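Ticket #4471: structure output looks truncated?

Reporter: J.K.
Steps to reproduce: submitted the chain below (190 residues) through the standard prediction queue, then opened the result file.
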Amino acid sequence: MAKAEQNQQEAAEAPAKKKPILLFIIIGVLAFLLLVGGGFGVYYFMFAKPSDEALQEEIAHDQTADHDKKEDKKHKKDSKDKHEKEGEGHAALIVDIEPFVVNLVDPKARHYLKFAIALEVPDEAAKNTVTALLPKIKNDVIMLASSKMMDDVILPDGKLRLKDEITSRVIAIAGHDVVSDVYIVQFVVQ
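Returned output as attached by the reporter:
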């Protein structure tokens, strides 16, 4: 009879011992799943590539905004040109080129660079020459910018190097007497 009571006591203690172990295992599994889920969420929202539709929408939105700004600049520029022709002073002319959107070379992710440049020309004849050479200028600028990596253009030194390279290519096409300087007027890396 003593053995029967001892077996009953052991049987009662065994489920009590199993409950803390089972509870510990369940808590461990839940904590693991929470960490894995959180890690996936961080990766998905921080490092995932944007969808093509989202990129297209953003580019379209930027282009419409740029078109409106370009119209405003054109109005201001036309009035400035009128004042210069009236004899208020002879300043260099600025030729705005529509923004460029190029994909950057990056094996890890998709990044793009959106930028606009303006060319400083000395007179109306040089402006006409630049306008005639615009397809060649755009081609060289696009080829140059699309060969860059994000690390090449994200820091200020990289932007200055890109500006210098663009300037040398534009001057090689148009000549020193036609283009006196190149300005980067818009620059966005995403």
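Triage note (M.O.): checked the attachment and the full token line is present. The first helix runs from residue 2 to 47.
Status: closed, working as intended.
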